[in-house]
Amino acid sequence: MMGDGAEMTTSAERRLGDSIIRELYRDPDYIDDAVLNEYVQQLFDALVQAAKARGELSPELQERFAWQILLGRDRTVNAFALPGGYFGVHLGLIAVVGTRDELASVLAHELSHVTQRHIARLMAQQGRQTPLMLGAMILGALAASKSPGAAQALMVGGQALAVQNQLNFSRDMEREADRVGFGLMQPAGFAPQGFVAMFDKLQQANRINDNGSWPYLRSHPLTTQRIADMHTRIPADAAPPAPASLEHLMMAARARVLMRPGGVDTWRQWVAEPQDAGFAARPRPQRVAAWYAACLSAVQLGDYAVARKALHGLQGDVGGDAAAARQARLLGAELELAAGDAPAALSYLQDSVVTAGGGQAAGLKTRPELLLRSQALLRTGSSAEMTAPLQTWLATHSRDAAAWQALAQVWQQQKQPLRAVRAEAEAQVARYDYAAAVDRFKAGQDLARRGGGDYIEASIIDTRLRAVQSLLKEQAAER
Description:
Layout: H1 10-24, E1 30-31, H2 34-53, H3 59-64, E2 68-72, E3 79-82, E4 86-90, H4 91-96, H5 100-115, H6 118-125, H7 131-146, H8 159-167, H9 171-185, H10 193-207, H11 215-219, H12 224-233, H13 246-258, H14 264-272, H15 284-301, H16 304-317, H17 322-339, H18 342-348, E5 353-354, E6 363-364, H19 367-380, H20 387-396, H21 401-413, H22 417-430, H23 434-449, H24 455-478
Parallel strand pairs: 2-4
Antiparallel strand pairs: 1-2, 3-4, 5-6
């Protein structure tokens, strides 16, 4: 490690990251897509565990930082690390990487910037600035990566140069992040060749003169030394990496559709692609990606009959691949929910239910199933069975705003308004919007005074209100 960033404590860095993330949650480009978020977060979590096992991640840092991925609906190819263990990934990056190994290489590089305390060292260079100013400067730089004009609302004049210096890692830091990140790949279950493949993609984009669609090239400039170093790290006798999985191709297709590259016209083109002459003769991976894009695009267009046809084609092509078949089922549930057929959506989620027994609590296997099943049961008026799974999930994922919101809807349907208000407040806490959370907790107090009836819940609300008011005061003091 080149430096320990001792001039900025881990607590201070986390608080700064929290303040930045609070603003990013309000960005219209922020997207909490359970399917894509799960896919990227799983890759990232494997890298975090590898960093811990290799001694690159200290127990203190692991405990204090968030280690959380936020997705942006931006079409540009970009990913970035933020203070406090937060990481941003644009859908444009997911859409262009050819394999999970290539995506993992970017995540490993960004993770290593944080584990090696590069961000803390850069923050220390701006030590005379207040945390609020630093946060505003970083937000301005992120806005500039999408739209240079938008950044002017957050940074002006001499601050622009300070931001550039703030976010640009030195060449030594870039090389160290390459080296450490490369070392995480194989222990985390990824082919190290993903680094080389991603570098080759970046180099090709660099040669054709980046037109602004690859901000990653500006924040992480390539050098011939970095490229050569990655090539020399691959052993000559290394086994070739596996081809792209069907699941990865489906996730890349999902990213392309959800980032809305060309609006309605592009969606219509993707819907029509499976009808092209010779489509059936294409390789299976190409067909799977095209079927997925066609189905999801048809859902976006509200053409559910066409979406069901595309889903049928997709199901026929993913047989025998468990991960891809699961993604097809999730897409089917999403399609039927959009079409207003909750029972049909539930039929796609039957395999997601974990029955009690064998020492395992009843519940849902993963977050996408949890949220989709909650939506479907709410529409059928049978949401009571989701109470326990949601509460179990939130016991270990207290920062899941969408799950809190789903629980609020469940409580409301069960005519438990006080509990619903508290869940709404907790959803705001999860987004670091403490002012909005205080308002909801106070609404809960008012409801309890008018005869809400649930004394235990009223006591919890009182306790949580005091805790969040304290957090709100800390925010105000930092400002």
